[in-house]
Amino acid sequence: EAVPKGATILVLRTEHLAEDWNAAERVVSGRENILGEDQAIFPHNNVNSNSDEKAKHLSDESRVLVCEKLCNEIQVYKKILSSAINLNEKQMKQSLEELKETCPVEAMAATCGDPLPDITEKLVKGRGYEKEKIPEPFTGEISVGRAVYSQPPHPYELAWPKLRLPSYMRKDPEYDLNLAPKDKKTCKLHTLCSRLASFRLNLSSNRICIRINPLFSPNEGFVHVGKTAGSTIGCAIGFNLHCATKIKAPGLLPRYATNMFHAQMYDCHDDSAYFVFVVRNPLDRLVSAFNYDKPSDWDDFRKNFGEKHYNFRKRLYRDCPFESMEDVARLGLSNRGTASGECMRRAAASIEGTEHFGCHSYFNYQYHLEAVPANATLMTIRTEHLVEDYNSVEYHLGGEPQVLGPNQTVLAHNNENKVTGDELKHLSEESKKLVCDKLCNEIQVYKEILRRSINLSEEQVEESIRELSESCPRETAASTCVQPLPNITDKLVNGRGYISSKKGRRRE
To answer: What is the mean pLDDT of the segment spanning 455-479?
Structure first.
């Protein structure tokens, strides 16, 4: 029932493998007897070596009982045989006679006492469409739900059938994703903005990623939170981002990192073997994100990204007196601040990631960690230790421990903000304290990512925590914050495609 109506069917019977292979080959290519009598191509694969002969035995009485329950399945089996264009009438009768030896009543029957089961739910969960919407005969494209694909659809396209995965989310054609071992495949998480989000927020919020076929289910993911050098890593491992160089990294990671999580575009399989995060000191990331998200040419930004994203940024960068993160702290967070009450609220929300003013700030560590499965196995590449951590990830995948040497040129700086001057990156000590206070929850999530990463040693985790304490000592030392962790259910629904309380990880 899962294959299209009117599909052309070829059949290989287990009892007559070589004969039917030759018949199928004759239909497809016209070649005769491609496998001879002495062929050795078909060893017995997937044999159950644990079952003894006693476990395979059925008494005559038991066989009658089992055959009765198998009646509908036997009718489908006969239908498959009769539909096979490579089997002649003699071969079909041959299989029917063989079946009569075990289930004679059901083999001769045309109907059964019980009706054929309704397997709508099984089709929806397994094939991806409802029974009454079975596609038309195969035309060279793959139909799933309301969407049609010329290639096997990505998880993102299954979750949002009206959208297509952008080209920069796909791997270079030189990488054959099906060659990556299932237990090594990686999903890359990468957080930036896309105009596609404008079209998606009104779609049903209960759509989920459906695994269509194990062949198309890559199993290792890459997580890039914006302004953490994620573009640098993404370009090095073969994703079509805004790359300054076409040099690709050596080793296993470029082959195994098959899918990417990019802001509101979650294209990872939930059963990915690993999720590889790229992270950076939270304060440094926030300052960089604020400056990067602030348009240098408002008219050009409005033209290229549309009214939706223009209005996101306008509410913080134009309607409020915030030219820099220093302004956000001094005018919007301080008790002596002169910004309006509404702009003060926006200042705090922009740091906490609870309101959308720019993609890099909004899609933060909390969002990415809550978006991946609760039991995900994490590996992390720290911006401050790129080569060291890249090598560590490579080693955990089974590769060379020093695949990138000290003189490597692979990890070029991509997507660098060349417009912002150093003065906009500066924070006074007083402003730093105000910003760190609002970053407290994000800092706790950052520490959790580090501690869960299987490629980082305890010494490396402590190293990053010491580096962070130089910027935000009180929040780094803390284990809880004054403000509770924000409830980001709506953000997960609109970005990840599921309700977090049902599928994601709800953190208290």
So the answer is: 97
